[in-house]
Amino acid sequence: MALPRAAEVVIVGAGALGCSIAYQLTRRGMRDVVVVEREAIGSGSTSKAAGGIRVQFGLKVEVEFSLRGIAFFKRFDDEMGVPCDFRQEGYLFLVTDEADLARFRRNVALQTSLGADVRIIAPDDARAMVPGLRTDDVIAAVWGPMDGYASPNDVVQAYASRARAGGAKIVEGTPVTGLARTGDRVTGVLTPEGPIEARVVVNAAGPQAPLVGRMAGVEVPVDPRRRHIFVTGQFDGVRHPMPLVTDRGSGFYCRSEQGAVLMSAGDIGGTTEYTASVDWGMLEPTVRKAVRRLPALEHAEIHHAWAGLRPLTPDDHGILDWAPGVEGLFLAAGFCGHGFQHSFAAGEEVADLLTTGKSGTDISDLSLARFAKKAS
Ligand SMILES: Cc1cc2nc3c(=O)[nH]c(=O)nc-3n(C[C@H](O)[C@H](O)[C@H](O)COP(=O)(O)OP(=O)(O)OC[C@H]3O[C@@H](n4cnc5c(N)ncnc54)[C@H](O)[C@@H]3O)c2cc1C
Fold first, then answer.
1. pLDDT tens-digit map of 5-19
2. Where do the CATH 3.30.9.10 domains begin and end in the chain?
3. Each residue of 106-121: pLDDT tens digit?
4. Burial of 301 by CB count in 10 Å (0-12 exposed, 13-18 middle, 19+ buried)?
5. What is the mean pLDDT of residues 319-325?
6. What residue's CA is closest to ligand 1, atom 33?
7. Phi-psi region for residue 254, left (φ > 0), alpha (ψ -120 to 50) or beta?
8. How confident is the model at residue 376 (pLDDT cuts 50, 70, 90)?
9. Is the model's pLDDT at 194 over the cut of 70?
10. Which pLDDT score is estimated for 374?
11. Peptide bond preceding 241 in cis form (omega within 30 of 0)
12. CA 220–ligand 1 middle distance (angstroms)
């Protein structure tokens, strides 16, 4: 496709966030939208996500984003015309620490006040849900029956195809190499195929958002952190479907994946620059944490693995805000380990802001300014 020379809005990055924003803009009647993607739709963090969807968050705006996401994934087939394999098999957090439990109690009160179904249950009830679970050190579990998972790749491809059907153009294989400016205003993007003028540029470049921000002299506090997923072969040593079980003490989590078990050790090591290849040295600590919690997993064989970069902010919350000091540049980035599940609601909010000047929900907790406030 020939590169468009101008657009109302140019979005940098065709991940879950960029494609959701494009889809939502076209739903609001804006057809003059171009998404520029250096690789392929969904090829960044989105296709590496475990697909998890949960209401257990500590900010009101995040719980609301989750509830709207769950409602969307439930009606996905009707709205998007394709399936996304949404399964509400629940999330089960295993808590081993009193301070952590106090935090969960506060968050559960917030979540239930907003209409979510989340319950604090006894370790024995957790074991009844997941036979074979070791709970000797568990003081309580938190059960979210509304939670589950869906296919990130199916979702991002559906956003993209509905955005295209609504008039948006998505250009793949084209990196944004610079941002054009006139004075304090961004006027478009630069690419090896030429420039695209735009009234608004959205930085939705995932873990690369800081690199795109720097093109306009804006610091975006996002660090990439590699996370591994290991998937067993078909395994009947656990009862399927098994909810997503998170061991809060070790960071390990696992869930059923069509008769197999998908698992991750959580975070090991620090931020990792931009390396997203599989380090097989991560298998040993993953299996150790797995067997500690679910001894039956000792008999499972690993079938395949992948790794991806989570775009982390210092406080583990995303950023939806105008860039300071640079008119026309919007930041939709840093959605950490929940950017897939929050992409639907985040896309709605950004599209509302860009078309009406106002977001539908109070998103001030996701502002960039919060970092400056905390630092001062
Ligand atoms: C192992 C793992 C498990 C995860 N599990 C979950 C989960 O269970 N649930 C959940 O909700 N989230 C999960 N996440 C987090 C989730 O993947 C991210 O938060 C989300 O995908 C971020 O979406 P995004 O659109 O911001 O970024 P991305 O999907 O990375 O999209 C950004 C795009 O921008 C492109 N880009 C970058 N620079 C440029 C440039 N200069 N020019 C043009 N294009 C550019 C990239 O190629 C990329 O396609 C997980 C992440 C990992 C790694």
1. 999 999 999 999 999
2. 86-146+224-308
3. 999 999 999 999 999 9
4. exposed
5. 97
6. 13
7. beta
8. low
9. yes
10. 67
11. yes
12. 15
Query: Can you give the pLDDT at residue 273?
Result: 80
**Token pair listed for 241:** 């479907």
Testing ligand 1's pocket by substitution, the residue of 41, 45, 154, 342 carrying the most ligand atoms inside 8 A of its CB is 45
pLDDT, tens digit (0-9, with 9 covering 90-100), for 277-304:
999 999 999 999 999 999 999 999 999 9
| DSSP letters for 213-240 | HHTTT-----EEEEEEEEEESS--SSPS
Which CATH number applies to 86-146+224-308: 3.20.20.370, 3.90.550.10, 3.30.9.10, 3.10.290.10?
Answer: 3.30.9.10
Centre of ligand 1 to C-alpha 155, Å, is 13
Q: What is the dihedral of CA 144, 242, 265, 301, to 10 degrees?
A: -170
Ligand 1 pocket: which residues have CB below 6 Å? 12-18, 36-39, 43-46, 48-52, 175-176, 204-208, 212, 227, 229, 308-311, 333, 335-341
Q: Give the percent of the chain with pLDDT over 90.
A: 95
Domain with CATH 3.50.50.60 in the chain: 6-49+152-222+315-375
**Would the pLDDT of 375 be above 80?**
no
How far apart, in Å, are the Cα atoms of 313 and each of 142, 304, 318? 25, 29, 7
Question: Quick one: average pLDDT of 218-236?
Answer: 97
- In CATH, the number for domain 6-49+152-222+315-375 is 3.50.50.60
Starting at the edge strand found earlier in the chain, the sheet holding 260-264 runs: 119-121, 140-144, 91-95, 244-247, 253-257, 260-264, 223-232, 302-312
Taking the CA atoms of 155, 347, 263 and 88 in sequence, report the sign of the dihedral they define.
negative
CA 232 / ligand 1 centre spacing (Å):
24
- Ligand 1 centre distance from Cα of residue 310 (Å): 7
pLDDT computed for residue 373 by the predictor:
73
Mean pLDDT of the chain: 97
**Please, which residues bridge with residue 309 across strands?**
226
